[in-house]
Amino acid sequence: MNYNEREKVTALVKLHIPDFGHSAKLIKNLLWRLDHNAGAPLSPKEKYLLDLACWHYRNRLGGLVMFDLPKAQPVLSSYQRSESSTVGQVRLL
Hints:
4 helices; mainly alpha
């Protein structure tokens, strides 16, 4: 995780979201990962879900965070790699 992703996770943890809340499982998983394997990068889907959680809780995070909050709901297609990024690679199978 990079610095911004760590800040987002810690800010969401400070909101004390209940177990049945929006993105509660994601926040618990990322908190565990922050404690045990913080150097591992997030997958594109995890990045999307983290930004979606920040967008969902943007009103509660408003005055508490130093990073920019999303102004619009994130779109999953913008987080996935396009086929043009793998053009230089050769398929083995």
